[in-house]
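Supplementary Methods. Inverse-folding protocol.

Structures were first reduced to a discrete structure-token string of length 669. This string, shown here, constituted the complete conditioning input.
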């Protein structure tokens, strides 16, 4: 290009005349000049190309248009930059800009931050038509279409059975092609794996996605994951733990021995209760279990049956090993409960011919020691007395690998924690399960199995469990700590002086039914019982201040309905199973709500309904909050005096005058 040609196209304001002296150009003028020349060159080149190929193709035409647009945009941007620069050289403009920046923020473009996510995001610049996967895989060729199959057991109209089958068919085809191309043959393992997958896919034909049958109509092998989920929901069973075996749906499906199943039938237990369904299979696999279920829901059989099943696996006691102690130990907080568990074990061990000994306070320790040394498979004990026996060497636990802590929280609450730990430490530790929860247990090996059961599980028990249980499974039926829905709860706000009169009114309505009246202190138990006795009621008492013999006579008299009112302290609050108690009356409310749950649980047992009445005074503020929550939770009426009392609105231990937190502040205009 000649100089004259160039000068003709110069931008306005920059004129060059070669005949005149050289002109000084500023930097910006030089830049402008260079840009102009560059644009002119490109334009010419393009015109040249167009002439060469005569007519531009539509694509070329498009891209040329785009390029032109891009060039225009660039020159606009340059012009704007230049204008800004000139403007900012002016001090007044500079000041204006600074003020603008101060109040309205900088106009400078923000640097774009590329997040790590954005870096990884891939963008494909190929088109659908370029996708080659459809040549190889039929699945892509015929993408699955949703068809109107609603109401026929398919999810969202998708026939998963067909989908699964097609997927495995294609997988086999592709795999075979790969083998063919590579000139190799499938190994037996690979072929078997493919075949197995096909078989699994075929199974979809018979069940799984179909919801036409309820789980109760299905055989065990037909149960799908979904059925098991519904089953657990139906019985309110929830688990916490790993590698959990399936619950049992009925006795026939359990792995209990025939003798035990016969004993279950003999006891009249037609169907297992939810806690039994969930925890018996766990016990049979020697898993450690923490079982939390409502009062009267059959927890005793839930630990007794796996315990007896375990004993049947061991050699019968002989002269050689009977001095080594029992095979299993059950600990319970009270003597009455220990004796009740003994009865339950004897009931289920009917066809096994095993010996059970109970070791509780109030009886001769020497005699108890003698009975153990004579040989027994199971010992039921209160922790204090058992530790005493162990320390005096009346008995040893050299071959005991099965331990049950019934009402574990109560034992800790009563201060028996050290004794429980002492007994656990006296057991052989060589058979503890591996700490690693992924390690599979050897079915033929004997491990130490620990069971903990209660209707309530406060944190102190969880601490004990952490130290002595290995990878336990926590089985909860319903809501932990909640009273069973079979009990109708009433709470009355009364004055202390009104209690006796009101109690008598309730007892008058009993007829031939039975009632337990709970009172917080032994002394008051005796006083109230005396009063009722004088008034002509058939009353007996039970508390820790009575001799063992008196306690047994009282309980037996109440069981046989010789007496229809039992006035008792908390000794009778836990575990005691007396059928058909119609009414539980809390003459005094216990100072902990867990005790309340257990006390009222003496009624409404084994599927029967019951009534619980509680007298509350204005001095019992300690439990107001928890009691109100409990009543609300179980849809029971809350007396208005309790509902509006300040103590029922604030959890004990929380600070009423706490300054409001940031989130609590409400701004008003
Ligand atoms: N599967 C069953 N079928 C029928 N009755 C049962 C079944 N399981 C337990 N029972 C009966 O239910 C009653 C309560 O059982 P159990 O004493 O074991 O309850 P629990 O859960 O231990 O109660 P608590 O928490 O008060 O100790 C007992 O009389 C028992 O015989």
């Amino acid at each position: 290009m000649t100089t004259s040609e160039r000068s003709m196209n110069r931008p306005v304001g920059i004129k060059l005349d070669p005949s005149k002296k050289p002109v000084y150009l500023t930097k910006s003028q030089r830049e402008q000049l260079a840009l102009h020349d560059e644009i002119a060159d490109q334009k010419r080149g393009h015109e040249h190309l167009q002439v060469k190929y005569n007519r531009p193709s539509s694509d070329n035409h498009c891209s040329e248009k785009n390029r032109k647009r891009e060039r225009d945009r660039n020159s606009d941007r340059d012009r704007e930059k230049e204008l800004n620069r000139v403007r900012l050289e002016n001090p007044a403009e500079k000041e204006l800009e600074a003020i603008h920046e101060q109040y309205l923020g900088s106009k400078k473009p923000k640097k774009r931050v590329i997040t790590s996510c954005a870096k990884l995001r891939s963008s494909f610049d190929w088109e659908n038509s370029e996708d080659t996967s459809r040549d190889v895989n039929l699945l892509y060729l015929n993408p699955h279409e949703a068809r109107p199959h609603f109401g026929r057991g398919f999810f969202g109209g998708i026939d998963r059975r067909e989908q699964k089958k097609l997927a495995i068919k294609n997988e086999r085809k592709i795999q075979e092609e790969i083998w063919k191309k590579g000139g190799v043959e499938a190994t037996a393992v690979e072929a078997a794996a493919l075949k197995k997958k096909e078989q699994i896919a075929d199974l979809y034909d018979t069940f799984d996605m179909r919801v036409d049958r309820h789980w109760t109509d299905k055989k065990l092998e037909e149960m799908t994951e979904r059925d098991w989920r519904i089953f657990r929901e139906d019985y309110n069973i929830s688990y916490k733990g790993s590698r959990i075996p399936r619950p049992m749906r009925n006795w026939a499906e359990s792995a209990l021995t025939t003798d035990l199943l016969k004993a279950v039938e003999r006891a009249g237990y037609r169907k297992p209760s939810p806690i039994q369904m969930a925890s018996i299979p766990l016990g049979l696999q020697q898993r450690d279990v923490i079982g939390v279920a409502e009062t009267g829901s059959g927890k005793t059989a839930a630990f007794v049956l796996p315990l007896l099943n375990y004993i049947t696996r061991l050699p019968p006691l002989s002269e050689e090993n009977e001095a080594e102690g029992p095979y299993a130990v059950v600990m319970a907080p009270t003597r009455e409960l220990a004796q009740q568990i003994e009865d339950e074990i004897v009931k289920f061990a009917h066809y096994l011919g095993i010996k059970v000994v109970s070791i509780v306070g109030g009886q001769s320790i020497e005699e108890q020691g003698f009975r153990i040394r004579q040989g027994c498979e199971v010992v039921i004990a209160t922790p204090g007395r058992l530790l005493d026996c162990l320390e005096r060497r009346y008995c040893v636990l050299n071959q005991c690998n099965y331990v049950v802590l019934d009402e574990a929280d109560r034992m800790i609450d009563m201060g028996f924690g050290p004794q429980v730990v002492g007994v656990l430490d006296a057991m052989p530790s060589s058979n503890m399960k591996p700490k690693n929860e992924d390690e599979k247990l050897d079915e033929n090996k004997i491990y130490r199995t620990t069971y903990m059961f209660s209707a309530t599980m406060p944190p102190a028990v969880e601490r004990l469990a952490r130290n002595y249980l290995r990878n336990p499974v926590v089985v909860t039926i319903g809501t932990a700590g909640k009273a069973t829905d079979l009990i109708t709860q009433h709470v009355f706000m009364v004055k202390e002086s009104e209690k006796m009169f009101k109690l008598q009114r309730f007892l008058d309505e009993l007829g031939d039914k039975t009632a337990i009246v709970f009172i917080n202190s032994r002394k008051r138990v005796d006083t109230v019982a005396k009063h009722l006795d004088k008034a002509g009621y058939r009353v007996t008492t039970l508390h820790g201040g009575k001799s063992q013999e008196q306690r047994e006579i009282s309980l037996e008299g109440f069981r046989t309905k010789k007496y229809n009112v039992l006035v008792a302290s908390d000794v009778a609050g836990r575990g005691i199973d007396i059928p058909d108690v119609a009414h539980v009356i809390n003459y005094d409310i216990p100072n902990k709500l867990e005790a309340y749950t257990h006390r009222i649980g003496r009624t409404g047992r084994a599927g029967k309904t019951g009534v619980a009445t509680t007298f509350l005074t204005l001095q019992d503020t300690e439990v107001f909050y928890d009691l109100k929550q409990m009543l609300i939770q179980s849809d029971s009426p809350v007396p208005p005096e309790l509902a509006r009392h300040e103590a029922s609105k604030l959890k004990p231990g929380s600070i009423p005058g706490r300054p409001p937190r940031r989130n609590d502040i409400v701004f008003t205009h």
